[in-house]
Amino acid sequence: MMAxxxxxxxxxxxxxxxxxxxxxKKGLLTEEEFTKIDAFLxxxxxxxxxxxxxxxxxx
Length: 59
Known about the structure:
By secondary structure, the protein is mostly helical. Helices cover 76% and strands 0% of the residues.
């Protein structure tokens, strides 16, 4: 079972990453910018499941 704080971090990470992916797909971000944003989000939220989902490219 996941602690409520970790669940919140996972949710926030995935939501923020989804927004960044949308910007990337619309051409508003470069791959390099997206990679930097994702690294920042990973550091900020410390997701466990979210990192696995992001690594497989699934949402």
